[in-house]
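Researcher: I'd like a structural prediction for the single chain below. Treat it as a standalone chain; there are no partners to consider.
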Amino acid sequence: KQGGGFIKDLYACVGLPDIIAFVPYLLFIKAKSKTGVQSDHQRIFQDRCKTANIPYLLVRDISEVEKIIY
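Model: Treating it as a single chain, here is the predicted structure.
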């Protein structure tokens, strides 16, 4: 964080989820607080995953992740 804003990586994919897992298939996981809202870029990424039949989880609690992974 610098000067009240985050430094953006010019080479990072905008909207990329927080976690990329292989369990044994590819799985994208975006973590949000109970009141958190996805950005437009995050929703676009989620829609692209749906189109490509790639699992994408929007989770609010670690227990949601544990149900899928364990």
